[in-house]
Amino acid sequence: MAKDLLCETALDDAMPAAYYAPTYKMLATFWAEFKAMMTPVISSKDEQLKTLRLINGAVIDFWSLQDDNVSRGRKYKRVVVDEAAITENLETAWNQAIRPTLTDYKGDAWFMSTPKGRQSYFFKLTENEKTKSNWKSFHFRTVDNPYIDPEEVEMAKEDLDALTFTQEYEAEFVELEGNPFFHAWTTERNVQKNYYDPELPIYLSFDFNIRNSLTVYQIDFDKREVRGLEEYQQGGIGMDLEQLCKDVALKYPGAVMIITGDASGNSRNALTVDNQAAYQLIESYLQDAGVVFTSFRVPEANPKTVNARVVCNAVIKHFNITTDPSMTITNADIQLMRMRSDGGLDKAHADKHNYGHAGDTYRYLIYNICYDWYTNRRPANEN
Questions:
Q1: Is 281 helix (H, G, I), strand (E, B) or coil?
Q2: How far apart are CA 364 and CA 48, in angstroms?
Q3: CATH number belonging to the domain at 187-373, selected among 3.40.50.10490, 3.30.420.280, 3.90.550.10, 3.90.830.10
Q4: Where does the chain hold its CATH 3.30.420.280 domain(s)?
Q5: Contact 65, 89 (CB under 8 A)
Q6: Which residues sit opposite 213 in a β-bridge?
Q7: pLDDT in tens, 250-275
Q8: How many other CB atoms sit within 10 Å of the CB of residue 365?
Q9: What is the pTM of this model?
Q10: In whole angstroms, what is the distance from residue 28 CA to residue 20 CA?
């Protein structure tokens, strides 16, 4: 639709137009696609300034809203702002830079986006039609697009949690801030007395912070079950990590142990022995304690919590993931952890009220291990 609107103004009316994207990366993608589409009617182009001049004399400018001085001094008949809801400085950009460009030609502005909560300036813009006669909002669901297979939308509905599907596919303004981060989780369904199966590997999920947090799981791929067995919290980074590993090794003698968790444990730390990375120490401590085999499934960097929320809730929704009632800290964290307005984890609230570290181990386990299982990309020989 953005391409059609730009063509209508520049080709049909021979008037100047502009396109705005939230980031340079998103702008580059649209620029490449639009430029290729318009090749037969382009008379000149400026790759650096991202400007197209057409054979009828019309000019189309392309801007990133990461630039604070975007389009100042320009005049347009039409502007298109894409993915407006995720533009951090949208209000300032609109009022101080974009809106003035429409005055000379009495131009129009189109804001397009998937909703991102009621706290966004994009939501406020959609409310303008209630009080201003020159504003109008339009609502289209993904299924309203004739080029999208409805069956694909139904598959997405099955895959995703309800909040994510409502926002991303139904294009509804879902209020995310303050809602549970693990909103697919319930005590009734996801807390139960679990048992240890010596035939299955042990999964250890770590978080390194003021206190070392560790949760212990087993995964039965045949039964599609993830069972949380117990939790540990001791000391801090570099403190009592050796004792924690000894305790786990003694509790599960002979078990194959697969380690995952916080990616920060990959880095050297001044608080650890000889400045070693935490996972180096963990491997050494477990081996010294008699663990025969360990495997690490730790990413280079932790995933964005916005993405982790979508994955975790989809996995919780579809599979039997439970924690033992004895895991009181973990279960409390899961219930307390909440979302920011953008759908990410509200770490500031968790840090302020001193909770969430055990819940983080739960998040890491699901994303690092269970997501691969969920998408049928699980490692071989683990069932």
A1: helix
A2: 41
A3: 3.30.420.280
A4: 187-373
A5: yes
A6: 207, 233
A7: 999 999 999 999 998 887 653 455 56
A8: 28
A9: 0.74
A10: 11
